[in-house]
Amino acid sequence: MTRMMIREAILETIRSEMRRDPTVMMLGEDIVGGMGTAGGPEAIGGIWSTSTGLWEEFGSNRIIDTPISESAIIGSAAGAALAGKRPIAELMFADFVGVCMDQIWNQIAKFRYMFGGKSKCPVVIRLVYGAGFNAAPQHSQAVYSMMTSMPGVKVVMPTTPADAKGLLTQAIRDDDPVLFFEHKALYGVKGEVPDGDYVIPFGHARQVRAGEHVTIVAMGMMVGLAEKAADQLAQDGIGCDVIDIRTTSPLDEEAILDSVEMTGRLVVVDESPPRCSVAADICAMVANKAFAALKAPPAMVTPPHTPVPFARELESAYLPSPPKIVDAVRSVLAYR
Amino acid sequence: MTRMMIREAILETIRSEMRRDPTVMMLGEDIVGGMGTAGGPEAIGGIWSTSTGLWEEFGSNRIIDTPISESAIIGSAAGAALAGKRPIAELMFADFVGVCMDQIWNQIAKFRYMFGGKSKCPVVIRLVYGAGFNAAPQHSQAVYSMMTSMPGVKVVMPTTPADAKGLLTQAIRDDDPVLFFEHKALYGVKGEVPDGDYVIPFGHARQVRAGEHVTIVAMGMMVGLAEKAADQLAQDGIGCDVIDIRTTSPLDEEAILDSVEMTGRLVVVDESPPRCSVAADICAMVANKAFAALKAPPAMVTPPHTPVPFARELESAYLPSPPKIVDAVRSVLAYR
Amino acid sequence: MQLSRDELLGAYRRMATIRSFEERLHDEIAKGEIAGFTHLYCGQEAAAVGVCDHLGDDDFIVSTHRGHGHCLAKGVEVKGMMAEIYGRATGTCKGKGGSMHIADIDKGMLGANGIVGAGAPQAVGAALAAKMDGNGRIGLSFSGDGACNQGTTFEAMNMAVVTKAPVIFVFENNHYSEHTGPAYATATSTDIAGRAEAFGMKAWRANGCDYFDTYETMREVLDYVRAGNGPAAVELDTERFYGHFEGDPQRYRGPGEIDRLRAERDCLTAFRRRVTEAGLLADADLDTIEAEVARLIDEAVDEARAAPAPTPAMVLEDVYISY
Amino acid sequence: MQLSRDELLGAYRRMATIRSFEERLHDEIAKGEIAGFTHLYCGQEAAAVGVCDHLGDDDFIVSTHRGHGHCLAKGVEVKGMMAEIYGRATGTCKGKGGSMHIADIDKGMLGANGIVGAGAPQAVGAALAAKMDGNGRIGLSFSGDGACNQGTTFEAMNMAVVTKAPVIFVFENNHYSEHTGPAYATATSTDIAGRAEAFGMKAWRANGCDYFDTYETMREVLDYVRAGNGPAAVELDTERFYGHFEGDPQRYRGPGEIDRLRAERDCLTAFRRRVTEAGLLADADLDTIEAEVARLIDEAVDEARAAPAPTPAMVLEDVYISY
Ligand SMILES: Cc1ncc(C[n+]2csc(CCOP(=O)(O)OP(=O)(O)O)c2C)c(N)n1
Ligand SMILES: Cc1ncc(C[n+]2csc(CCOP(=O)(O)OP(=O)(O)O)c2C)c(N)n1
Ligand SMILES: [Mg+2]
Ligand SMILES: [Mg+2]
C-alpha cells in the first residue's frame, strides 16, 4: 500500500499500463504542454498534472499533444483503436463533450454493434467533471447522466485513490469503450493504494458504510457528502447503508436492490440535474424491482433543473450537501 | 377544420408564422434544395417536404439553405436569436445533434442563465427523429431523452396534425429555446387541424383514452402504439387511461399524477433506450410523488439498451409494440 | 503505364463488380425488397479502385454513406455485402448495420459512416497507429465534396499536419451534396484541394473518372506519404450516375445531364477504350470479366434472398464484449 | 491619421481602462478574493479598442474566455463587470456567469464564451440578422489563434462566405493557446489569415499591439463589409502579458520573455510615444486619464466588495422566461 492522491494514482496507472502494454497511447490538449514554445515540451504535463513526465518517457508517437480540436482527438482515438491500439483520450473538461459528442455517441459507442460484432474499440476517454470550483455553467457539469443513457459505452466514476487505480487499470485493459469521469474536486483526495497489479471489475458497487434504516446510493463527489450525512445521522441512531456505485453503466443493480430489500428506504444522491438523471434511473429501477420492499417513496437529492451558477453562494445553494441529504433521509424515514 | 398530414400542418404553420412575423427565419440543409445546380433552387424544398415553396415566397435572407455544417447552422440560429430574430433551424435527422450538441446544450440552453436573465434566445430547432424506416443506428434514434435532461430548453413532441400546428405555433412564438421533435413515421398521419390561429401551451398533456385500470403514459410515435394496445385491452374489459404528454420538458406532472391516483398503476412507453430515459424519469417522479397510490411497480416499455439495428426483423424486435405494451399492462394488473 | 495485363484485368474486374453490384441494387430497391436508405456509387468506380489498388489489407480506409465502392475496392466480400444490404444474418454485419455501416477490419476497412465528416479524424487515428508501428502503412479517408464543409474534416486535416500522420484525404467531388451544388455550398468550390493546402499539406488533383489518371496520381501520393512526409490530400473530379439516395427525384439535374454523363464520363467505357486502343487487352477479355461479374452478382442476390433473417435475440448481442 | 483629439483621448481612455481593470484583477485574484477561472486581456488592449472603436451598439460582437477587453471596448459598464467577476448580485449577470460569461445585449455584446470556437457561428447568425434588416450593421467574432483549430470556426467561415454574411472574423494571435504555441498547434501558424483566404474571403493582417495600425486596417475592413461584399477576416499580431489563466506557472515562456514584451510591445506605451511625439496630445493629458481610470477601478472594486451576494433563491431564476 502507498498513500497518494487520486491524481497521482491516475498518473501512476497510466504510466504502468503504458510500460506494460506498448499499444497504449494517449492524446489530449496540453497533456505535454509547451509544444512549439520557447519553454519547450513538458512545460505543464496536463493542466491537472495527470500526465507529467509521460512524454519524456514515451515520446511523441505515444503521447500526442493536440490542437484544440476535440472531435479530432476523440475521432483519432476511435480510429487508432479500430486499428489495434488502446488510446486514452483526455477531455480537459467534461463539458467539452458538446463539441465531440458524435464521435463518442454515434461512432465509438456504436462501431461494434453496427459492424455486427466484428470490431473492438478499446478507447478510454478521461473526462474531468464537476462543480465546486466556481468555474461557471460551461466548466462545471456532471455530464455522466447523459453518457449513461448511451448503449455501447461504459461509465466509470472513481471516488478514492485505490478505486482510481483499480478502475482505470480495468478501463485501459477493457475491450469496450470506457468513459472515465474524474471529479476535479477529488483530485487532491488522499488514500492508500494497493501496490502492483490491481484491477477492479466494472459493475461492482462498494459499500461505504453499513446501516439498516435507509439506503443511500451515491457516485463520484456525492459519495463523500453521503458519508458526512451518514456520520451525522449516526449520532441520532440512524443507520445508513451507503453505496458507491462506482460505475453507472454497467450498474450493480443487485447491490442496490439487496440493500433496499433490507432497509425499505432509498435516497439517491447525484450531481447531475434531476431530469433523466442517474438518480431518476436508479429510483425507477428500484421502484420497479423492489416495489414490495419499499416502505417510503424513493427519493433523490440532486441540483435543481438549472445550469451550474458561478458565484460561491449560488454554487453552494445549487449543489447537494450533507444537510440536504440529511433532510431527505429524515423525510424518507418519517414517511408513513 | 381542414384535414391534412402532419408534414403539411408543419409547413403551413411555418408559412403562416413567417407571414405574421417578419423576424421569423429558417435555416437548414437542402431546405430549398438545388442551390448551385442546373436544376436551380426549390428543387426539393426540404427532404421531408416541410419547407416547399418557402424560399420562393420569403427569399434567401429568410430561408437560408446551408452547407453540411450543423454547428454553424445551430450557432447561426443562436446568434440571430440573440440579435432579435426568431430562427427555425432544421436538423434533417435528430441523430446529427452529435455534431452540434455544444451549440444546443452549452450555448442556446444556457445563454439566459449565464447572462443573468438579460437575453432571450427564441430559437426553434426542428429535429426529425425515430425508428421504423430501417435507417440503421445513426439515422433512427429517439434523442429526446438526452435533450430532456438539459435545463434551458423545452422539448416538444407532436403526435397529431392538430398538435403539430398548435405546438409549433407556440414554439415559434415562445421566447425560450424549443426543441421540436418530428417523428419521420408520423409525417404522413392525417387528421383535422383547426383553421386560423391555434396555439397549444406547453406542459399540458392530452388525454387520448379514458380508463380506470391503468395509466399508460406515452409520447410521439409511442402514443399510437399505446392506443392500439388500449383498444385490444378494452376487449377484455381493461380500461387504459392513455396520456400523450406532448412536451417532455416542461412535463405535465399533474395530469400523470391525477391519473395514477385513480388507477394506481403505471406503464410508460418510450422510444428511447431505457437508461436515464424519459420513461425512467416519469417512473421515478411517480414513485416519489404518488407512492401511496401505487398498487403495482411502475413499469416501462422501451427498446433494450442497444443501438437501433438495421434489418426489418431486428428493428421490430427492438421497438416497443402494442403486444409488448399489452404484456406490460397485464403484468402490472396481475401484480399482487 | 507500367500496369501488367493481370493488373489491368484486375482493375477492370473490380470496377465492373462495383458497377454491376450497384446497378443491380438500383433494380432490386425499386422492387421494394431492400429496406432503408441506400446511396449508390455508380459512376465513381475509378476513384475507389484507382485509390485502393495501391493499398494492402493493413492499410486502413474509412468511408462514407456512399461506401459500397470503397468496400468492394478494399476487398470486402461481395456476397457478405449483398446479404448485409438485404438485412440478413449472413451479412458482413449480421444485418445490424446495413448499407451505410459496412466494415471489415481484417481488410483494413474501418467502416462506412452515416455521419458526414465523421471518418476523417478516424483515418488520422489509424494513421497515428501505423506511425507508432513505423511500418510504412497509412490511413486514408474518403469523403465527398459536401463533407469538406463539416468541422470534423477541417480539424482532422489540421491535426494530421500537426502530428505528421501518414494519412491521405481523398475528396471525391461528384458535384453534389444531396441536392446542392458545391458552387453554392463549398465557398471555394472549384478548389477543395486548395483548402487542404491552406492547412499546410501537399494536395493533388486528378480525373476521378479516369482509372489511369487516378491510379498514377495516387502512386505519387502514396510514395510521398509512405516516405514519412506527413499527410496529403487528393481531389478527384467524378460523377454520380444516380440520385443522392435511391428514390431521389433529382430535380436539381440539368436536362439530359445523366445521359451526357453516362456518354462522356463513364469510367468503365474510358478504361475499355484506352486498353483496347492501346492493344493491351481485347474487348473479349473485358466481356468475359463482365459476364463473370454478372454471374457473381446473380449468385450474391440469390444467396442473400435465401439467407436467414437475423433472430430477435441478436438485437441484444454485440453492444459490448462484456458487460 | 484622421483622428480628432477627442477620439484619441477616448481611445487611450478605453485602453487604459482595460489595462487598469486587468492589472487590478491580477492583484485581487492573488489575494484569493475572486473565485473561478480568470483569463486576463493585458497586452491585447489595442486589438479590442482598435476594432470596437468602429462599431455602434447595434453592431454585434461575440467574444471568448478572454473577454474582459472586448466587453469594455464595446461599452459594457465597468462597475457591473467588476461586480460580476466578484460574483455579486449587482453584477452584469447577477453573479451567474462570472468572468467567462459577460454579455450585454443592449450594447451589442452577445457574450464571452467558455467554449473555444463557439462564438464564430453566432457572429455569423448575428450578421445574417443584420443582413435581413439591410441596415449596414455587422457581426464580428473575436477569437484566438488556438480557436482557429476548432471545427466550428471553419464551419462558420465557410457558411459566412456561402451566405454572404456581413461578418468579420478577428483572430487575435497572441502566440499561445494555453501552454502551446501556434507553430505547433496551428499547422499554418505563420498565416492564420491564409486559412480564411482559403475559404474564399478577403483577409487583412495588422499589428495588434499598435492601436493605429489596427484602427486603420479595421476602417478598410469595415468599409468593405458594410458595403455588402460579404465576410472578411483579420489577423492581429498581439501579446499576452499574463498567464493563460491566473495561477498559470508559465513554464512555456522563454527567459525574460515577459519583460521584453512589456518593454517592446506594450500598446499603451506605443500609443503614448506616437501621440506625444506627433504633438497630438501631451503626456499630462494621458496622465490625467490614467488617474481618472485608476479612481474608477478603485470605486468599482470597492463597490463590488460592498455589494450583496446573490441569494440562494436566485439559483432557480432565469433558466426560462416561462416554464
Ligand atoms: C453530419 C451530417 N449532416 C448531414 C447528413 C445528411 N447527408 C447525408 S449525405 C449528405 C451529402 C453528402 O455530400 P458529399 O459529401 O458530397 O457526398 P456524396 O453524397 O456526394 O457522396 C448529407 C447532407 C449526414 N449524414 N450527416
Ligand atoms: C472546446 C474547448 N476546448 C478546450 C478549451 C480549453 N481552453 C480554454 S482557452 C484555451 C486556449 C485558447 O487559445 P486561443 O484561442 O489562442 O485564445 P487565448 O487564450 O490565447 O486568448 C483552451 C484550450 C475550451 N475552453 N473549449
Ligand atoms: Mg458529393
Ligand atoms: Mg492565443
What does this structure look like?
The complex is a heterotetramer, with 2 copies of chain A (about 325 residues) and 2 copies of chain C (about 325 residues). By secondary structure, chain A is α/β, with parallel strands linked by helices. Chain A folds into 2 domains: about 1-195, Thiamin diphosphate (ThDP)-binding fold, Pyr/PP domains (Rossmann fold); about 205-335, Rossmann fold. In chain A, about 35% of the residues lie in helices and about 20% in strands. Chain A has helices at about 5-20, 55-60, 70-80, 100-110, 110-115, 145-150, 160-175, 220-235, 255-265, 280-290, 310-320, 320-335, and strands at about 1-5, 25-30, 65, 85-90, 125-130, 155, 180-185, 190-195, 205-210, 215-220, 240-245, 245-250, 265-270, 300. In chain A, the strands form 3 sheets. Chain A has a 7-stranded mixed sheet with strand order 3-2-4-5-7-6-12, with helices on both faces. A 5-stranded mixed sheet of chain A has the order 9-11-10-13-14, sandwiched between helices. In chain A, strands 1-8 form a two-stranded antiparallel sheet. In chain A, α1 (about 5-20) runs parallel beside α7, α8 (about 220-235) crosses α12 and α9 packs across α10 (about 280-290). Chain A is globular. The mean pLDDT of chain A is about 100. Chain C has one domain: 3-Layer(aba) Sandwich (Rossmann fold). The radius of gyration of chain C is 19 Å and the shape is globular. A 5-stranded parallel sheet of chain C has the order 1-2-3-5-4, with helices on both faces. Chain C has 12 helices and 5 strands. In chain C, α1 packs antiparallel against α11 (about 265-275), α1 (about 5-30) crosses α12 (about 285-305) and α5 runs parallel beside α6. Chain C has about 325 residues and is an alpha/beta fold. The chains are: A alpha/beta (about 325), C alpha/beta (about 325). At the A-B interface, α4, α6 and α10 of A face α4, α6 and α10 of B. The structure holds thiamine diphosphate (2 copies) and magnesium ion (2 copies). One thiamine diphosphate sits at the interface of chains D and A.
